[in-house]
Design goal:
Largest sheet: 6 strands, antiparallel
Strand order of the largest sheet: 6-3-2-1-7-8
Length: 104
């Protein structure tokens, strides 16, 4: 079970975007892509068949998963995540600081 999932609200811990928040768009192994974070300019080649012009576009680049932490809205800060098993056998994620369950 991953501690950070697609759709989670995260905050960047280090780098040029330190302190910024965003939503996780994709996870690929140890890399995570966050909405409007770690943007880079990419040159896009034209494709006349799809009516795509040549342009320089901003694209979100992946970050290492260790550089982001999940956002705890109750405590208003970044928090660590743990995994525990409920009495009915279901595994859930919880915040380490206050023990609140993230996904019920």
């Amino acid at each position: 079970m991953n501690k950070i999932r697609k759709g989670d609200q995260v905050v960047v811990l280090s780098g040029k975007d330190k302190g910024r928040q965003g939503t996780v768009l994709a996870i690929d192994g140890e890399k995570v892509t966050v909405e409007n974070i770690n943007k880079a300019k990419k040159h896009q080649k034209p494709n006349p068949q799809r009516q795509i012009p040549a342009a320089i576009v901003d694209k979100e680049m992946p970050l290492n998963i260790s550089k982001v932490a999940i956002w705890n809205s109750a405590a208003k800060k970044a928090d660590r995540v743990g995994i525990k098993q409920l009495k009915d056998g279901k595994r859930v994620r919880f915040f380490k600081s206050n023990g609140e369950v993230i996904d019920a």
